[in-house]
Fold these 3 entries.
Entry 1:
Amino acid sequence: MAASAATVFHNNENFNDPTHCTMTHFLLAVVLLSAGPAFDAHTLDGETVSGELVSLDSKGLILQTSDGPSTLTMKQLLGLSPETKPQKLDTKPNLWIDLLDGSTIGAKQYLVTDRKVTVTLLDNRTVQLTTAAVAAVRFQEDGDAINEEWNRLLSRKADNDLLVVRKGNALDFHKGALFDVTDERVKFDLGGDLLPVKRSKVFGLVYYHPPNGDLPPAICRIIDNTGSSWAASTITWQDDLQWTTPTGSEVRCPLAAIRHIDFSGGKVIFLSDLQPENVSFMPFFGSADDIPGLDRMFSLRTDTNLQAQPLVLGGKKYSKGLAMRSRTEVVYRLPGRFSRFKATAGIDDQVRPNGHVVLTISGDDKQLAQLVLTGSTPPTPIDVDISGVRRLTILSDFGENLDIGDHLDLCEARILK
């Protein structure tokens, strides 16, 4: 009742119509009295809104904060996390299931009858799928070498289902058609012979799917306390959190079992996750060609500082970002249309108070921003309009002190839709 009423309030198109004020006030009172658990909502603007969850659907959410109700649209959301994290389950997955939509499910049982799939999760919830939604199932875990072989099998082009078995430290596979799966047997058609293969001998299953068009886009990714990560094309909250995967599977989960809901897909990209189109480094004296390997030693670093240690500005550690020594220029071809470039810039704490750089940010060869950063400058937020930009160029140039201590960190350097 509470969440349903909240949804009506959330979608009320006549909220500003005086003739609807009485109903609006009534609905507002209902949702505020029956708000759910406390959550932190993270926005694209870098803000965190904390409060009790009142409403959540595919359009956005409402949180009851200390200052009153706060409404956030789907476009504004970056992530949603409970203030109290659910406990991790003691049980570990017996198998992993990959869906065509990118969902990865940790489970303890996988059964197939007439192409209908029943998955039993670690908390004993069951999910109904079809084999048309399943990309692969892995029944065994092992070391890095086997993992690499498995990933190569998943990436190969195939025109049949694959039954994958392990032989020593290698994987082998048979082409055919997969049918029913139980805890004891996998029925597999090999050249017209229907074989009951022992499950204990099977490393994994790879399902063949002919091209059949694009799946609906995912609006978020849901991570629960079973370790599963679900792509969701629709989402709603009533008694439980409910969502539909892009492959059409319907899932329910108690809200108390949700670890995080990630709404960032396509909205924000960290530059350290992109491959630069070009990186050029020039030392203060001479050229990078004079000393072999100099460009690799002092050029761009991603997600670490120039000493391969954590990025630290003003005593705060950052897990994402770029580290650049003067004079370094890096060019990114942006994968789509983005509106803002944001980062926190400064000289890395390890070398302060040394350092003096001129940071220039350009878009399609047009200068968008320039600032001087020194070892005594506090961490500086950067927010640049990059609307319409196709190529983003970042230059860390020499300042007034040769190149002494010119260790520039661009922490959480990211582009946003």
Entry 2:
Amino acid sequence: AGALFCTIGGEEVRLDQPGDAAQADAAARRVGRPRGTLAQEEPRDFVRPEPAPGGRVREYWVQARSVMWDIAPTGRDQWHDRAIRGPRAFRAFTYQLMNPGFASPAGPRAIPGPTLTGEVGDLMVVHFRNGEEKLEQAVTMHPHGVRYNPEYDGTYMGDFTRAGGFVAPGEEFTYLWECTPDAVGAWPYHDHGPNHTLNSFRGLFGMLVVRPKGERPPDVEVPLFLHSLSPPVTGLRRAFQTINGRSGAGNTPTIEARVDQDVAMHVFGMNNDFHDFHIHGHRWKDSGGAFVDTPTVGPNETVTARFVEDNPGRWLYHCHVFSHQDGGMAGWYLVGR
């Protein structure tokens, strides 16, 4: 495996040893607020988007916070009945759902962040706050799939950066994202500030879902982010293969459904690797209408396993890259009658 290099504010930072994250964070702290002089050459005043006729405003309050995160809180992998030894906790960066006005937490600090949903015609209004002094750097929210103008891209671009691309500690910004017909599906969102690669690796990501107008949501719907947590990211002695920031069956999400329920599992690649997603005892149609049971998902790609449940029992789901599944990228799917 080759070393990972990140460019942060013009500095090249190597990420292949424990402790390298501290150098990346230091580089990110040195990135000053962009002057925006080059951005002013582009249109300064964009038309404020509104919901389409029949649509509505979907309003969310989300803040970036850090948390000490245990990668395997049970201390065991139930599949192989083995202990997961050694230190497992690290300081993760997370998105946290808040009540209106950031009045109080509406959800935990967790990996992944809150799921944001909308229907075709809606406007997602996402109030974002960089709410944690321990982050000590600018972070953002950058969405995939939805429509937005450059003001709401949430991307740091040096002197081309617009307001939503640099949200410093203690600051807030409101993103406006349109749910257009071509946005139907499940998409990731993640940090795209100056230190976006490292911050995404350590937990600043989540899912947004756009449905056709009036479509009934699935009975069971879960995001599953396939990724790894390596020593340069965590400062721990070993790497963990993870789903939603957890490693080993019993720590990764245990998904429960019943026969005849509509089930949707949205699977995302959230590191540099390609993954395969497999559910024992099940198959489903891909976007082309072919039946599959082990589709491939690459970095920041999404595949959805959606089917009507008809096969009760305890099932494994996992990445079928063998080193990933045996390293902890697996979980339980429990189907009752």
Entry 3:
Amino acid sequence: GALRVDRGLAERLPLSRSRVQGLIEDGRVEMDGAVVERASAGVAAGAVVVVRVPPKRASTLTPEAIPLDVLWEDARCLVIDKPAGLVVHPAPGHLTGTLVHALLHLRPEVSGVGGERKAGLVHRLDKDTSGCLLVAKDDAAHAALSAQFAERAVKKLYRAWTWGHLGARSGVVDAAIGRSLRDRQRMSTRTRRGRSAVTRWRVIESYDVAEELEIDLETGRTHQIRVHLSEAGHPVIGDARYGGGPARARGFHGPQEARARRVAGAAPRQALHARALTFDPPGGGARVEVVSPLPADLERLRTVLAGEA
């Protein structure tokens, strides 16, 4: 088949495919003098395609001095250590105090990179997940890193603490994820239009009522780890939305129930941490692995699980 116009432009320009699709929606792409209506339109050999990229608008968001730890940085990108409890992107209900506001203060040059509200962010983490987040400092770096995520060339390792025992040392969950048919706030594998999602897990440590898992995320769907583990019957400790809240302790009996209640009480949030990110720096050079140390709240949970607190 013919090359799609969005893919062709994304391969040739320092723009991500989603950015190209947005420009097409805004009527800013022409082929042989006619406005391109659809991102899926084919490009004939020799066609002249013109893209009118609007001048970079300064972000209308106000930088905020929210402290952030930088784990790694070069001239083109940086990896920050996202604290739990911080929303990544501004949205209704979170118009201030987000990670984007913090980034605009930390590195003003990320303003407008990847789009007005992106501030260079290439991916996201849930509000209550901590750990490694990759940020581009210019549009070309943003496009290059976005492409690595799309091609699954970025290795993403997480630590998760989950209720019960999965019954094997390792395994793979391969089940598409989309919006739940029953509750728009939740994601589910029971959905009409799911996107492929693959979660590889292995047990790092087994406790009487729970396990610590290392998770290798092949894809990065919204709530992917939380949904896959919950639907396997082993929700993330502290994740009330997907069945891992304090009520889960009632699923244990006898002395284990008391243990489970103690563990539930020690979980201040969902016990999920983006521990390591491995990628190719857009400026060139050797592949980089960046590791985020375990935050204090999860260290404490680990101590309680081990029966030492």
